[in-house]
């Protein structure tokens, strides 16, 4: 191949790369309103479970045993700290919750109830980075976070309001 045709090939490939990058940029969206695709959701959920599971396993905390009184106290804490996104019943995300990306989940759903108690505790304490879920460790006592976990456990028995 002559020097001239090699240069033409290189120029052609560079143009192709620039055009593809331009197209990808044009199609890409960071809008919070677009519904995440199945692949993205599956990947993000898997990653979240691996990381939370790993972090929660390293925690040294004593679990507060479940009691109805603890769940009732959790309901009060929940009404102050969590309803703005998760809804009053914890099962019906508000307009804010429905407009966040990732979306705010129904805390009584099987997907959320799959977490172990210690994993739920970890999530409430630390939040989930790059999502709208805040970490409450600086403001809640450990006891309050256990009350919240116990309240979340009662949600499958409560119909959505
Ligand atoms: C500012 C909005 C906001 C507030 C306030 C909020 N959350 Fe969340 N929460 C989220 C979002 C968004 C997610 C989804 C995160 C994700 O999917 O990665 C989430 C997820 C969760 C999850 C994990 C569900 C799952 O399966 O991923 C739990 C548990 C939870 N929140 C509990 C609470 C509790 C308890 C409070 C109050 C102490 C609270 N949240 C306050 C936005 C919020």
Short description:
Helices cover about 60% and strands about 0% of the residues.
Distinct small molecules: heme C
CATH superfamily of the largest domain: Cytochrome c-like domain
Number of E-state strands: 0
The Cα radius of gyration reads 23 Å
Just name the CATH architecture of the largest domain: Orthogonal Bundle
Through-space gap between termini: 73 Å
Count of helix runs: 8
Binned, the helix content reads 55-70%
The description of the largest β-sheet is:
none
Features:
161 residues; mainly alpha; Cytochrome Bc1 Complex, Chain D, domain 2; 8 helices; 58% helix; elongated; binds heme C
Write the layout of secondary structure elements.
Blueprint: H1 3-27, H2 38-57, H3 68-81, H4 83-86, H5 95-98, H6 110-113, H7 117-126, H8 142-154
Helix pairs in contact: 2-7, 3-8, 7-8
Describe the structure.
With 161 residues, the protein is mostly helical. The protein has two domains: 30 residues; 120 residues, Cytochrome c-like domain (Cytochrome Bc1 Complex, Chain D, domain 2, Orthogonal Bundle), CATH 1.10.760. The protein is built from eight helices and no strands. Helix 2 crosses helix 7 and helix 3 crosses helix 8. It is elongated and about 85 Å long. Bound molecules: heme C. The site of heme C has 25 residues, from helix 3, helix 4, helix 6, helix 7 and helix 8.
């Amino acid at each position: 191949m002559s020097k001239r045709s090699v240069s033409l090939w290189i120029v052609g490939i560079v143009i192709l790369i620039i055009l593809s990058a331009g197209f990808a940029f044009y199609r890409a969206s960071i809008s919070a309103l677009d519904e995440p695709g199945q692949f993205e959701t599956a990947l993000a959920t898997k990653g979240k479970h691996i990381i939370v599971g790993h972090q929660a396993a390293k925690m040294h905390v004593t679990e507060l045993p479940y009691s109805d009184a603890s769940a009732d106290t959790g309901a009060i804490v929940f009404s102050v700290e969590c309803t703005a996104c998760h809804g009053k019943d914890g099962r019906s995300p508000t307009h804010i919750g429905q407009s966040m990306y990732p979306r705010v989940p129904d805390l009584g759903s099987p997907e959320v109830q799959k977490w172990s108690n210690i994993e739920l505790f970890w999530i409430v304490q630390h939040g989930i980075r790059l999502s709208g879920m805040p970490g409450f460790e600086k403001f809640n006592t450990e006891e309050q976070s256990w009350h919240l976990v116990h309240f979340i456990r009662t949600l499958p028995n409560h119909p959505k309001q």
